[in-house]
Design goal:
The chain has 24 helices and 17 strands. The protein is α/β, with parallel strands linked by helices. The longest helix has 22 residues.
């Protein structure tokens, strides 16, 4: 149900289904020029990148992109009030249905696509009635409430069009049409004559609109702000007969000014099909002349020509309105340039650096290094002391493992060759990979996929064995069942306060399976860090499995080893510079010649 009074008092929070940059940018421009502090578009459902760049005024912003509604947090789902579906006609039913199922507090939405199957449109109609929400379309350019809501390309997609249409000052004239082009044309006509619109809606040009003209007229009648209704119709269909009945029954009492296009069709022997699906008059009542006569008899003010219709609009009662001059603001928005780099962790305010929304000095004084590093790696400030304590411990135990490991060897050799700190550190860091230090992320991937697959530990291990692959996170050259790694025992203690510990328990079940085959196939430090960190992120930070999966994809889990071991590598560099042993060279006896 379309309730304009309710929409005026609801904060617009929109999810776009599909990516359409001009339309989405026009909504953000409308928001900014309406004086809103934040953009109304909160998320985009589409394939591709994790974010899309847009402008809010002169400021470039990132809008998150999700592959499906499952990836949106429960909190955001509960906050969304409107959807805008700009996906193709063949995908509209599935994507709109998904929106209705996922978003519990929807008030309505717009279906932009043309060529939506008629059966799908009828399904939408029934769904809208069941949920008591409005849906405009198919083939609708949307719904507009000045200064409040722009849902679609209605009013234009260029910032200059929006300013010329004075869409930021509310008035008292409602504008309706099936045609998107004529909806925008009449909006501009109304404002040219000094009037302002109360709201406007495009039904869409398909045969079965989900929000019907009758429903829109009744919404205008119930809207205390609307004083007159301007309607542009066309030949074909029975909408105007239904509107005439509303007028005769006094269900519509406000002045209705209308024009019905398509008189030229009467000049043809066979009725021609015009642009829209239902713009075909098969009976006299469906012709433009027949509709005009019906509406006029019911009490509407009907133009016999488009010129006469314009004069009627010009003479609508009311005082001409003047609003703020947006010329300077619009001119500045036309010069917007996209940044070379986008960041979600850094900003600058009044010349001072800010991290995650806090000034650098305050952030540094109020948080530990472990908390700061983890927050920056996550892209948001951490919430739990458990995560901070765990990362602090991980950074400490990962800092060094002696001069014999590959990363330290490369650092030492480079330092003794006379190179500088950065070169030596880089040489050590470049050895980090699946065989040295880079196994934490793969171990996290293993535990996550194992838990989500709902396979048993033995099935999980057998999958790796059948592919002749190692289970990274399992196995140690030195430690075994009867000689356990003390670091792993300490890491596991961080799960003692967690009620579920799904990932740690799965890793331990895998360990039971592998150690039954060989005693040194134990859960190692990499595997322990990975499973415990997954559990803390899940249970204490509230990350979903989808969010955890994204962290594995961007190598989040390896970042802590790289950070910590960088300290160890630099320590070895400085140690070698102090000792000054000179160029490192292997004795020939340590090099074996192998025949190939």
């Amino acid at each position: 149900m379309l309730d304009i009074n309710l929409l005026r008092t609801t904060e617009a929070k929109v999810v776009a289904i599909g990516s359409h940059h001009p339309i989405i940018q026009s909504i953000l421009d409308f928001d900014f020029l309406s004086g809103k502090e934040k953009p109304s578009v909160k998320a985009i459902i589409a394939a591709g990148r994790n974010f899309e760049r847009y402008f809010f005024g002169q400021k470039e912003i990132l809008i998150p992109v999700h592959a499906s509604f499952d990836e949106i947090s429960a909190e955001k789902k509960n906050s969304i009030s409107f959807f805008l579906n700009v996906s193709s006609g063949r995908r509209t039913l599935a994507s709109t249905t998904a929106a209705l199922e996922a978003l519990p507090h929807l008030l309505g939405g717009v279906v932009f696509a043309e060529s939506v199957p008629e059966q799908h449109a009828l399904t939408f109609y029934n769904l809208a009635k069941e949920r008591n929400i409005f849906i405009t379309g198919p083939a609708s350019i949307g719904l507009l409430i000045p200064g409040i809501l722009k849902l679609g390309p209605i009013g234009g997609v260029d910032v200059r069009q929006l300013a010329d249409a004075h869409l930021f000052t509310s008035g008292d004239v409602a504008v309706f049409s099936s045609s998107g082009g004529m909806t925008n044309e009449i909006i501009h006509t109304v404002v040219q004559y000094g009037k302002r619109i109360s709201f406007s809606l495009s039904f869409g040009g398909e045969r079965f609109p989900i929000t019907t003209p009758q429903e829109a007229f009744l919404a205008a009648e119930a809207d205390a702000q609307t004083r007159a209704i301007v309607y542009f119709g066309e030949l074909g269909g029975t909408d105007e007969a239904d509107l005439a009945e509303l007028l005769r029954a006094k269900k519509i009492t406000k002045p209705v000014l209308c024009y019905i296009a398509g008189s030229v069709a009467e000049m043809f022997e066979t009725p021609p099909q015009f642009g829209h699906a239902k713009a075909l008059a098969s009976r006299k009542e469906e012709t433009a002349r027949g509709k005009r006569e019906s509406l006029k008899a019911a009490g509407a003010i009907v133009g016999n020509s488009y010129g006469e219709f314009l004069e009627m609009v010009k003479n609508i009662d009311g005082v001409a309105t003047t609003d703020k001059d947006y010329a300077t603001i619009v001119e500045s928005m036309n010069d917007r340039q996209s940044a070379l780099i986008a960041t979600s962790i850094f900003s600058e305010k009044d010349g001072q650096p800010h991290l995650l929304g806090e000034d650098l000095l305050g952030f540094a004084q109020g948080n530990s290094f472990a908390s700061i590093a983890t927050s920056l790696f996550l892209g948001r400030k951490i919430q739990s002391k458990e995560l901070e304590s765990f990362i602090d411990f991980v950074l400490k135990i990962s800092v060094d493992h002696g001069p014999s490991v590959s990363g330290a060897v490369n650092t030492i050799v480079t330092a003794r060759a006379g190179r500088d700190l950065v070169s030596s550190l880089s040489a050590g860091l470049l050895t980090i990979g699946p065989r040295f230090g880079g196994a934490i992320n793969q171990a996290a991937t293993n535990w996550l996929s194992g838990v989500l697959s709902e396979k048993s530990a033995s099935e999980f291990v057998e999958d790796f064995a059948s592919k002749r692959q190692y289970v990274l996170g399992i196995g140690h050259k030195k430690y075994r069942v009867d000689f356990p790694d003390p670091r792993v025992a300490q890491l596991k203690k961080f799960t003692e306060g967690l009620p579920l510990k799904r990932f740690t328990q799965f890793a331990l079940d895998v360990e039971k399976t592998t150690t039954a085959k060989k005693s040194n196939l134990i859960l190692n430090v990499d595997g322990a860090i990975a499973c415990v960190l997954l559990d803390i992120l899940s249970e204490k930070e509230g990350l979903s499995d989808k969010e955890l999966q994204k962290l594995t994809e961007i190598e989040f889990f390896n970042a802590f080893f790289v950070l910590s071991r960088s300290v160890g590598f630099m320590a070895h560099f400085l140690d070698q510079k102090r000792l000054d042993e000179g160029l490192f060279r292997l004795d020939e006896s340590l090099v074996a010649e192998v025949e190939v």
